[in-house]
Amino acid sequence: MKNSKIYYSVGALLYCPANNERIVSSLIKEKFGRHFSLALCLEDTIRDDRVKEAEEILVNTINTLFCERARRDFFIPKIFIRVRNHGQILNLFERFGESRSLITGFILPKFSLENADPYIDAVSSIQRYTDKNIYMMPIMENPAIIPLKNRPNLLYLLKEKLDEAEDLVLNIRVGGNDLCHMFGFRRNSNESIHNIRPISNIFADIITVFGMDYVISGPVFEYYSGDNWENGFRQELQEDRLCGFTGKTVIHPNQIEAVNNTYKVSQKDFEDAKSILNWNPACPSLVSGSIARERMNECKTHSNWAIRILLLAETFGIQHN
Q1: What homologous superfamily does CATH list for 5-263?
Q2: CA 264, 172, 311: angle at the middle one, nearest 5?
């Protein structure tokens, strides 16, 4: 499992079309707070005939942020570019010039056996332009992963591809809406995607294949206003966390706070995690009651859980009751 904070730090990833020219002002004014990441999208949110224009706006956005940040102090989130194809990665990175220092990585949509090698090669090739890692976040949403006959083998083949550049894979992401689209599914505002069994089964397989080696982020919840949306969103977040997801793609600032609160660590979990990882080697037993004397802690069995809890606490904080 990942044992570095960077892999857990994406958190709430706010999606924004790359041609949104107001995003610079919003960031300078810290309109969305200081605890989120940002995805500037050139794919599904942009019309096919407006991609070049969106690229120009994107380059201008990054350059403007870079210049403004030199003049004043404001929070700049981790910034990711969701591309349409591997060719955009090197092209955009060169066009960003010195402003490329603001880029954390690239999001790779519709990740598949057909595009895996070109995507991975493109991200690997741009490392020579910078003294920091530029990460990739592939999205498991290609319809090819749906058929039961092929899914396990396909997922393991994709993992083998990513394992060649494992340190550069910041998160694995899942495309809930894309997968629902193939079936004609759409949940209501008070319903969780985890109750749509064909989709949740795909998620379970993705977590089974990737979850021991990578951090996996939760799917989009498309409601951000109206009746019941907050209750539905919080319920899905709780189920995300229970199922093994960390963080979530968000499509509106209203969703950011709920994501951050969900991944805060309880005081009890924090104390137990510290106890497990600082087990007295002279103790004759590797099991004991928890700090609150509510459950059993096992030094061997719960060590990976404890590492993850401390990383989440460092990233999202502790929920004090």
Answers
A1: Phosphoenolpyruvate-binding domains (3.20.20.60)
A2: 30
